[in-house]
Amino acid sequence: MNAPLPDVPEVRVVGLPRLTSGFDLAERLDRALHLKVHGPLGTLTAERLARLAEDISLRGRGGAGFPFGRKLRAVAETAARRGVRPVVVINGSEGEPACRKDTVLLNRAPHLVLDGALLSAEAVGARTLIVAVTRDSTEASVRAALAERGLPRRPSRRAALHARVVRTPERMVSGEASAVVRAADGGPALPPGRRERASDSGVGGAPTLLSNAETYAQLAVAARIGARGYCHTGLDTEPGTVLLTLSGAVPRPMVVEVPTGVPLRYVIQAAGAPPLPQGVLTGGYHGSWIDTAGTADAVVSRASLAALGGTLGAGAILPIGPGTCPLGEALRVAEWLASESTGQCGPCRLGLPAAASGLSDVLNGGGPAALEALREVTRTVKGRGACKHPDGSARFLASTLSTFTDDLAAHVLGGGCGRRTAGVLPIPAPGDEQRGVPSGRRLAVDWTLCQGHGLCADIAPELIGMGSDGYPAPAEVMVPVHLQGRAELAVRRCPALALRMEQTPPEHPALPSVGRKALDRGRG
Asked: Which parts of the sequence belong to the NADH-ubiquinone oxidoreductase 51kDa subunit iron-sulphur binding domain (predicted)?
């Protein structure tokens, strides 16, 4: 059984590193080392930054692949038209079990990501930066990076920009843009059931520039070396490098930085995958399979994978070997996808469990009738959900049925394929679904009573540290559900009765009006 991926897996590079420069020097690049490795970064107007993004064909690296330059222009123009300050959001939420590239960047090179986000904030006139993260280690790294830059958590007359961290749960839907916006506004990290572009109305109703961590890091690299230098690596049509998370039938999961245009078979074999995998899942659990022949022909690029029925998506690549039943592997994922339903619409709440049950019927001898029922459910789910989760899950199931036709025939018409399900596709361990889910409550200290015993820090070290003055320093974040019991125990055990749990109201960023046009077409 394949264990869940570690927070920060091994990192490898094909060719020369860009995003991963300096990883051979330290586990985490602090501000000083980051500047030594990458050098200083100037500023650009919104027009010049958008033009740079267009010159390097920069698309979002979170899955949707929307052109970043077009998104930046839309945010700047909407902000200028409405006369409000926009918001910039780094989406570092990786709730999908097969993705770790953004987590690696925020844990090991947080300042490269912040460079791109702050460059964008300066260009569009934003005064609020939000970083959404999923895991404890990522949150700690980001908070340290913000402190190293001296960025305040709240609006201040002295500071041009303030930054805050938003914690999202490890769920498939928590990384969707609308879910991140909702979490940033103090609500649950779930899609709201309506589709609205963040560039029009995002955090606090303001136009919001939201992209994932790798996108901002790529922008920071391009701003330093220029479009010509950036395009020296990779394909002419898709220049640069990409980060891929490799898991599945490999000895250990890893994140690989690779130039576009490199053969996919070379990347997965370098990671230790079987020489002839019977299939490779591309784009993660909302992605698509490519078969053995397709794997031999594919190169690392959006266009190449799409032409073969796959997708680059969020950069998750999962080969499976010839010794496991691909339909059994898909069933494990389908059941997990069904459990990730937000329960907000019929296709998600009813359709996904029915699809997983239908695939189980096919595997257990249901015959042609079971297969037809499964295909009907998959068709019914597609295009009717309140968010992208039903569509992505339906894509995964439809691709499974169309890729592994021989195995499907063996199960439908015979007694099965004769292979066991090895469990090589990673899914979360039982109980992990509550990790990071905010409880809506926060620890607070009554300083008139605190005597610095430090017992609270011993009971809940994940939530309370000891300051240099010998007094406790509670983390200024909502207490996650999985740590709520420990926080309440710390409150009860405080000998001075100085610790308490407070309900936190929804937090909204300050959105002052602006008197200038954010998109300056006359400069640069």
From this structure: 327-371
Domain identity same for 153 and 209: yes
The per-residue pLDDT for range 300-346, each reduced to its tens digit, is 999 999 999 999 999 999 999 999 999 999 999 999 999 887 777 77
Whether 418 and 465 share a structural domain: no
Distances (CA, A) of 341 to 91, 177, 207: 21, 16, 28
| Other beta carbons within 10 Å of 237 | 11
Cα dist. 218→41, 53, 158 in Å? 13, 9, 30
Rg of the chain (C-alpha set)? 24
Q: Is residue 401 in some structural domain?
A: yes
Distance CA 482, CA 187 (A): 18
Cα(290)–Cα(308) distance, integer angstroms = 7
Q: What is the C-alpha separation between 14 and 261, in angstroms, rounded?
A: 11
Residue 214: name the closest of 326, 110, 370, 335 by CA: 110
Question: What is the C-alpha to C-alpha distance for residues 133 and 49, in angstroms, rounded to an integer?
Answer: 25
pLDDT score for 467: 65
Residue 464: partners with Cβ closer than 8 Å, 6 or more residues away: 443, 456, 457, 472, 473, 474, 475, 490
pLDDT score for 438: 57
pLDDT tens for 204-252 read 999 999 999 999 999 999 999 999 999 999 999 999 999 999 999 999 9
pLDDT digits (tens, 9 = 90+) for 136-158: 899 999 999 999 999 988 777 77
The arithmetic mean of pLDDT across residues 176-198, rounded, is: 85
CA distances from 220 to 59, 65, 384 (A): 14, 18, 38
Q: Please answer whether residues 302 and 242 qualify as being in contact, where contact means their C-beta atoms are separated by less than 8 angstroms.
A: no
Count of structural domains, the chain? 4
Residue type, 171: R
| Per-residue exposure over 98-119, b if at least 16 CB sit within 10 Å of its own CB, e if not | bbbbbbbbbbbbbbbbbbbbbb
* 173 contacts: CB under 8 Å, gap ≥ 6: 95, 179, 189, 190, 191, 340, 342, 387, 389
The continuous run of DSSP H or E covering 473 comes out as: strand 472-474
- Residue 257 phi/psi, 5-degree rounding, is -95, 125
Q: Are 501 and 64 in contact (CB under 8 A)?
A: no
Q: For residue 261, tell me if it sits in a domain.
A: yes
pTM of structure? 0.84
